Amino acid sequence: MMATERLSLRIDADLKKSLRHVAIREAVAEADKGIFISQEKMDAWVSSWGTGLERPPPEPDIFPIPCGPAKQ
Fold first, then answer.
1. Mind listing the pLDDT tens digit for each residue in 14-25?
2. Among 10, 22, 35, 44, which residue has the least CB neighbours within 10 Å?
3. How is the chain split among helix, strand and coil, in percent rounded to 5?
């Protein structure tokens, strides 16, 4: 088993706030694509951790419904 060590990093408050805002914007842009992994697939994956049969990370299985042309 690999040993771990605690790492502490001090970041300027303004930089930390800016990085948080960037991360949120990126997460929202990703979510707006409408591609997700279902809770069922995530649960199955996480449940396999620590077993001899750990599953690979799941692939997205929820996709946006394509919209047809707008009716006039």
1. 999 999 999 999
2. 10
3. 40, 5, 55
